[in-house]
Amino acid sequence: MNLTDRIVVITGAAGGIGAALARRFSAEGAAAVVLADVNSEAVRAVADSVGPIAHPVAVDVTDEEQVCALVADTERRYGRIDLFCANAGITTGGGIEIDDAGWDRAWRVNVLAHVYSARAVLPGMLAQGGGHLLHTCSAAGVLTAVGDAPYTATKHAALGFAEWLSVTYRDRGIRVSALCPQGVDTPMLTDGLAAGHLGARVVAASGAVLTPDRVADAAVAGLAEERFLILPHPEVAAYARRRAEDPDGWQAGLRKLVRRLTA
Predict the structure, then answer these.
(1) Is 239 a catalytic residue?
(2) Angle formed by the axes of helices 64-78 and 113-128, to 10°?
(3) Domain containing 92: what range?
(4) Partner of 212 for a Cys bridge, out of 20, 47, 50, 131, CB 3.0 to 4.6 A?
(5) Cα(108)–Cα(115) distance, rounded to whole angstroms?
(6) Percent share of the chain, pLDDT over 70
(7) For the chain, where are the E strands, in sequence order?
(8) What is the mean pLDDT of residues 53-65?
(9) 156, 162 contact by CB (below 8 A)
(10) Residue 128, domain member (yes or no)
C-alpha cells in the first residue's frame, strides 16, 4: 500500500505504537488520519502534534457500537477508509491467578476489538474494491509472553484471526497485515517493569527494545510490500523456526531464562 492520499484509522492512538504510526503516516502523505482512543485528552494531544490531517475521536474499542460509529463517521466525513489499524492492546502481567474480569478485559481489547473493527469496515472496503487491515498482534502471538497468560492467549487468537481474514478476503481485494513487534519502548513496557512483571523483565533482558518510531518504519515497509507478517524484530522469525522445529528445547530455554531472572 502506498500511503499517499490514503484515509487511515488507528485505534490505541493516544501513545506508543499508535501515535508513532500516525506521525509516520502523516509524513508519508496520508490525506487523513483518524485517531481513536479511550483516553480522549491524550489522543487530542497526539492529533495536535500530527497536524491538521489528524482527527481525534474518543472510542472504547470493547464497545461494538462505538467501533461501528467510528467507522460510519469516518466514511461520512471522508468518503472511505483505505487502511484500518486495530492497534489497541493491554497486558495483565499475570498467569492463571488473573480473575475472570481480567481475562475478559484482555479478550475484549486484544481480540474482540479486532473482530468488531473487521465487521464494521469490511463492507465499505469490499464495496470500494479494496482496503488494508493492519492488526497489531505482538510477537506474543508468534511466540509466548512469559509471565502473562492472558496476553499470550489473546495475542495468539488475534494472529489467528488476522490470518483467517487474509485467507478469506485477499482474493476480494482486502490485504491483511499482522504487526508483531517484540520489545517496544512504550508505557506498556515501562509500567510493566515498574510493577516487576516477569514478562516485561524478559523483554528488557533481551536487549532488543525498539522505539515506537522504528516499529512504525517497519509497518510502513511491510504495508508497501503487502506482507502478512510484519516483524520489526527480524530475530522473531528465527525464534519461531526454533520453536516449531524443537518445541521442547525452546521451552527449556525459556525456563532457563526465567530461572535466571527470578533467582
Answers:
(1) no
(2) 30
(3) 7-237
(4) 20
(5) 9
(6) 100
(7) 7-11, 32-37, 54-58, 83-86, 131-136, 174-179, 183-184, 209-210, 229-230
(8) 98
(9) no
(10) yes
Residue carrying C-alpha cell 473482530: 115
CA distance 130 to 174: 5
Of the candidates 145, 176, 141, 146, the one whose C-alpha atom is nearest the C-alpha of residue 158 is 141
Q: What residues pair up with 135 in beta bridges, in sequence order?
A: 86, 178
Bridge partners, residue 174, by sequence: 131
Query: Nearest CA to 14 among 81, 71, 67, 89?
Result: 89
Q: Residue 101: how many CB atoms within 10 A of its CB?
A: 8
Read off the CATH number of the domain in which 27 is found.
3.40.50.720
Q: Which entry of 116, 151, 169, 239 is annotated as an active-site residue?
A: 151
Q: Name the pTM for this structure.
A: 0.96
| pLDDT exceeds cutoff 80 at 81 | yes
Count of structural domains, the chain = 1
Residue appearing with cell numbers 475521536 = 57
CB 25 within 8 A of CB 8: yes
Whether 258 is covered by a domain: the verdict is no
Rounded to an integer, what distance in angstroms lies between the CA atom of residue 185 and that of residue 210? 6
Is 246 domain-assigned?
A: no
